Amino acid sequence: MTNATPSSYALLFFQGAIWGSSFQAIKFALEGFGPMTVAAGRIGLAAVMMLLYARARGHRLPRNGRVLGMLAIVGLFNCAIPFFLIPWGEQSLDSGRTAIFMATGPLIALAIAHFTTTDERLNRFKLLGFVMGFVGVLLVIGLDSFSAGAAEWLPQLAIIGAATSYAISGAIAKRVLNVSSSVFTACVLSSAALMTLPASLILETPVTDLAATGLSRPLLALIYLGLIPTGLAFLIRFHLIKTVGYTFVSQVGYLVPVFGVLFGALIFQEAITANIVTGLCLILTGIFVSRLSARHREPL
């Protein structure tokens, strides 16, 4: 493992931009496909890409039933659930606001780790970071949303649910040992594809939708989602973890919501209000403060 180089930072920013752009691509894909089909198409394409990558690296898939079962559970929480909830929520949410809600994942992970581990308990820094992030979320949601009815606040809670699902998957993934990153991801994506593809065929009409849209913007957006924000972004992530470490890679969490808000404003002319800016700053500051605990581990 080496120190971060200019090329490492360039890849980190590229990864943040890729993930930030996924929220706009989802908007385009929803013009021709339902949310479950968007999830299934994205996951299926990325699964094929990662299976080919793992095979090219000479890595074999595990045969242990317990390991495969754990990877399937990770696939459920890391891909199947959030990749459906995000487009479902984005049917009525701005893409930039969706990106901000997804940034709450690291803060939600703090609470989950407190109850599921013995070495990652909440301390004063983590608690302060969590509270700051919670206040930031309330600002982005807007308290008037709760008086406007379920149609207003349910999509926002769906995105927070997706972020929670990611955090749960992280806690489970730690229990899967001795599996290479490429095989791990290939198995996770493949299991999620086996969950979402049948659901898409049952709940929606992907074949009819595909025939109707043809090679148009929704299909191109779906292909982009599978190959770039899902497939390519994973490869960049693995490369950076191997060369400069996970702590460096985790900084992408600061970039994704910023790019998401900027792309939303540029592509869809989404409004950037004072509440959105303040809420985003509180969430990102909360993430930063919570990570100060790496050097201060006094428990509550």
Automatic annotation (TrEMBL):
Record's keyword annotation contains Transmembrane: yes
UniProt entry keywords in alphabetical sequence: Membrane, Transmembrane, Transmembrane helix
A Pfam match: EamA
Its membrane topology: Multi-pass membrane protein
One GO cellular component, as annotated: membrane
Subcellular location: Membrane
Record carries keyword Nucleotide-binding: no
Membrane-spanning residues: 35-54, 66-86, 98-115, 127-147, 153-171, 183-203, 215-236, 248-268, 274-294
Protein name listed in UniProt: ABC transporter, membrane spanning protein
